[in-house]
Amino acid sequence: MQFFIHYFLHLIFPLLIARIYSRASWKRSYIILLLTMLVDLDHLFADPIFAPCRCSINFHPLHSMPAIIFYLLLLFPFRTRLVAIGLLWHMLTDGLDCYMSSLNC
């Protein structure tokens, strides 16, 4: 169930966010939100790359508190707001995943 919730929140729920954020160009918004998942490239620098019980928040550099504060600041300029929403949603989803992992590991 955790796997389903995690990927639903990463792939399907952003579609709802895109529809709410921009009804006229929701497809473009959805693509931008999906592209914010590139933040997971920092997982490639971890050893091992995937560890099922490891929390990505505060472990990977782009999932750290300084990075999250930067993403919050990106909410203020209109031009970067959608990217900020995508990045913060990603962090929220990963944080929920950390919580669910802590119950199972």
Description:
This protein has 105 residues and is mainly alpha-helical. The chain has four helices and no strands.
In short:
The protein is an all-alpha fold and 105 residues long. The protein has helices spanning 2-21, 26-35, 65-73, 81-104.
What pattern of helices and strands is seen along the backbone? HHHH
Largest sheet: none
Helix content: 55-70%
Number of strands: 0
Taken as a percent bin, the fraction of beta residues is under 5%
Structural class: mainly alpha
Q: Any idea what the shape is?
A: globular
Which blocks of ≥5 consecutive residues have pLDDT under 50? none
Distance between the termini: 15 Å
Radius of gyration: 14 Å
Average pLDDT reading: 94
Number of helices: 4
Which short descriptors sum up this protein?
mainly alpha, 60% helix, 105 residues, 0% strand, single chain
Secondary-structure blueprint of this entry?
Elements: H1 2-21, H2 26-35, H3 65-73, H4 81-104
